[in-house]
Amino acid sequence: MAQLLGLILIVGASCLSAMSGLQRGIKWLSNINMGLSVFLIAFFILFGATFFAFKTFFYAIWDYLLALPAMSTTVWQSGATETDAALQNWQGAWSVFYWAWWIAFAPFVGLFLARVSKGRTIREYVIGAMIIPALVCLVWFAFVGATAIDLELTGIAKGAIVNADISAQLFATINLILSPELAVALSLIIVILLMTFLVTSADSGILIINTLASGGNQEQRSPKHVMIWGVIFSTLIGVLLAAGGMDALRSVMIIGALPFSIVMALMAVSLFKTLLGKEEGKV
Fold it and tell me: What are phi and psi of 120, to 5 degrees?
């Protein structure tokens, strides 16, 4: 029931945002999202395990560059040891799932990024849409994650973070840093931030689907059409949640990503040919 109520709230806010357009609701929500994200990261930089987090940040970059080739080509299989089974479960639940998740997200995310990046060069697009977001994620994991690890290593947490559910570990970390009153206030800010992440993802999807259904007309933004797509989205997700919860959503995402992975491969070839033609002056 809580998931369904949250779904209705998020999709309703997404519809209102999509109806207001790219320069109003979506832009305002994105700016709020960025502001709260910077505030939260700044909080952990100032009050978290700052020195330990800085070391973790640079170690993580180095380890990532070294491990990426092998991790990109290794498929773990359940062997005789418990470690082999754990690696296979982790790869299936995280690596393979998120690989399929982002392939399934690629159509509307790519179109949305192309729309907001109109007039930019390819270099600006790659830096702004790929490199900087990756670095922001790395900063987040380094400073928030390192603070939680430091609290456990120094014995302050006493297992409170490690033993907490993965969705509650951030809040458990905050409870150890701040007083109860300030922890509640910061937790409220985090919940608002998470909602803006979800709303900005959903409203961009609704906007792009509505644009595609309108034959590419970016100004065609009838409230009725936006609401129809919002109802379709919420109904589909609600049925999946009621039928099988998050496992059902994961299965549908992976199934939907499989055929589109072929389309993405063809799109990569098309992009390469287009860029090659530009270099030769053919386009």
Answer: -85, 155
- Residue matched to tokens 């496992």: 247
Say which amino acid occupies 235: T
Per-residue confidence in pLDDT tens, the chain, 283 aa: 777 787 888 888 877 777 776 667 677 888 888 888 889 889 988 888 889 988 888 988 898 889 888 888 888 887 778 888 888 888 877 777 777 777 877 777 777 787 778 888 888 888 888 888 888 888 888 888 899 999 999 888 888 898 888 888 889 999 998 888 898 999 999 988 888 888 887 777 777 777 777 766 666 567 777 788 888 888 887 887 777 777 777 777 777 777 878 888 888 888 888 888 766 555 5
Gap between the Cα atoms of 140 and 129, Å rounded = 17
b/e sequence 93-129, b meaning 16+ C-beta within 10 Å: eeeebeebbebbbbbbbebbeeeeeeeeeeeeeeeeb
For residues 33 and 198, the answer to whether their CB atoms sit within 8 Å is no
CA distance 27 to 71: 36
Cα 190 from Cα 170, distance rounded (Å): 9
* Cα–Cα nearest to 154, from 184, 177, 183: 177
Does the pTM of the predicted model rise above 0.90? no
